[in-house]
Structure formats: structure tokens, C-alpha cells
Design goal:
This protein has about 260 residues and is of the alpha+beta class. About 20% of the residues lie in helices and about 25% in strands. The chain contains 5 helices and 10 strands. It starts with 15 loop residues before the first strand and ends in a 28-residue tail after the last helix.
Length: about 260
């Protein structure tokens, strides 16, 4: 407890990155961030094998696998659950499980994270090492809503500060330009929410063409109409997108990357 930031968290004022959707607040002291980084470096030094934390990040550690499961459950109970219940009550009122991991961005490794949604109901993402420049976290709209590919804001991580948002909020990390950034991420799950009608995925027709910062080379059917693929990504992802779902494209001018994909339009 002494390692948690002891200041008050005012959920009604400056902590709103996006009103009603994305929130940020200080949760860890600098001393705790340093201790956590030491623990992570000890694991790296052990040369023990580490599974990828998720399908998109190549560099990171699953915290349950290095003995930190009880710490994350305590964090979920003391910080994530109470705040999520107030700020994002539909998804965050009854969090019962989690998947927690670190992610690392630096030159020669993962330099960015493509725009996506998380496999979570509530995402808690806190910066624990930040000697870097660039790599803003870009937020677009909620998956399935008309503005889900429209830019809303960019958030710059700060040491010890967390950002809290729904897992279905479309977002991505843009390129790091120097240094290294390390974050601790907790994906929390609510069985109650997942069994409710509110969790049912319903896609609405897009409002208009997507904003460039909200395009995904992994998921979007029309990525190449607006941007070039990053190096080594085209062969894996070109023509394999699903977003927007067929029949939910914006009204005028939608062109898929594969001509055959036009048959259903």
C-alpha cells in the first residue's frame, strides 16, 4: 500500500481524457515503478522462456508467470474495480478475473501498436518506465459505433500514471521515436457484463471516411486506400481485414483493398 500514490483521485475534473470514456490518474510512486522494473529485469536476466503477452505485442512478460498474480488481484481490488465501477459502470461493476502483462516499445523491437480493441471489458494501462519520445496512445471511437474509426484524442503516458478505458474502445500506440517505454497492462473481465444484453456486438453504419490515425493495417478492409503498409506487414495482412463489416461501410466512396471484396457492397 505504501507504494501506491497517496494523493486524491478526482474523477470529476482533470482525470477525464475523454469525458465518459477514458480516464487517467496517478497510481504508482516513482519508487514502486523502479522496484517493478528491477523485478522485470531480474526475470529477463534469468533467460527463462517467456510467452508473448498477447497476439499483437512481441516483447513483454505475463505477470502471473513471474509470481505477481496476487499483486495484480490486489491492484484490481484496491484500484481498478472501485474506479471502473464509478467511471464505467456497465462494464466495470463486477470484475472477477484478469490477464496482466508488460509491454515494451523501443527501436529494433515493437516500435508501435496497430489500432485495435482489447480482449477485455476494462483495460488499465500504467507507464512504469518512460525514457522515450513519441509513442502517443491514440483513441478513436467505440467499436461498432458510427465514429469508431474517427480520431478523438491522443494521450501521452507519464511515469506512474494509468489510463482506464473500455476494452472495446478502438486505440493504438504510434511510433516511438527514441528511447524505451514500458507499461503494465491489466485486462479485467466481468462475467456479469459478458452475459448481459449490453455486451452484444452490434455494428452501426460508419459515419464517414476514417481518419488516418485510426486506420488499422491488421483489421481494416480499406487500409491500403489511405496509407502504405509498414515494412513487413503487407504480406501478412493485405486483404485479410474484416472492418468495417460488410454492409456497414460509410455511404460514399468506400473501396476495399481487394476488388473481389466489392461484390457484397
Amino acid at each position: 500500500e505504501q507504494l501506491l500514490y497517496s494523493g486524491d483521485i478526482d474523477v470529476n475534473k482533470k482525470n477525464k481524457v475523454l469525458p465518459n470514456d477514458v480516464f487517467s490518474f496517478k497510481v504508482f510512486t516513482e519508487e514502486f515503478c523502479q522496484l517493478l522494473m528491477e523485478e522485470i529485469h531480474h526475470f529477463y536476466g534469468s533467460k527463462l522462456p517467456a510467452r508473448r503477452p498477447n497476439s499483437m505485442n512481441n516483447y513483454g512478460i505475463i505477470l502471473n508467470e513471474i509470481g505477481l498474480e496476487s499483486f495484480v488481484f490486489a491492484l484490481q481490488d484496491a484500484i481498478i474495480q472501485p474506479l471502473a465501477a464509478i467511471l464505467l459502470p456497465a462494464e466495470g461493476s463486477e470484475l472477477e478475473a484478469h490477464h496482466s502483462f508488460t509491454i515494451r516499445y523501443r527501436g529494433g523491437e515493437d516500435t508501435h501498436l496497430d489500432v485495435h480493441t482489447d480482449d477485455s471489458d476494462i483495460t488499465f494501462n500504467v507507464n512504469i518506465f518512460g525514457n522515450y519520445s513519441g509513442a502517443p496512445l491514440v483513441f478513436c471511437g467505440i467499436n461498432g459505433e458510427p465514429d469508431h474509426r474517427l480520431f478523438r484524442t491522443a494521450y501521452q503516458h507519464r511515469l506512474g500514471y494509468a489510463v482506464l478505458h473500455r476494452g472495446r474502445h478502438r486505440h493504438g500506440a504510434e511510433d516511438i521515436t527514441s528511447g524505451e517505454r514500458m507499461n503494465l497492462v491489466v485486462w479485467s473481465y466481468s462475467p456479469t457484463y459478458r452475459s448481459s444484453e449490453a455486451s452484444r456486438k452490434v455494428h452501426q453504419k460508419e459515419a464517414r471516411k476514417p481518419d488516418l490515425r485510426c486506420l488499422s493495417y491488421t483489421h481494416d478492409r480499406d487500409f491500403a486506400q489511405f496509407r502504405e503498409f509498414p515494412p513487413d506487414k503487407k504480406s501478412r495482412h493485405f486483404g485479410r481485414g474484416w472492418c468495417p463489416p460488410r454492409g456497414k461501410e460509410y455511404h460514399h466512396g468506400f473501396v476495399p483493398d481487394l476488388p473481389a471484396d466489392s461484390a457484397a457492397l
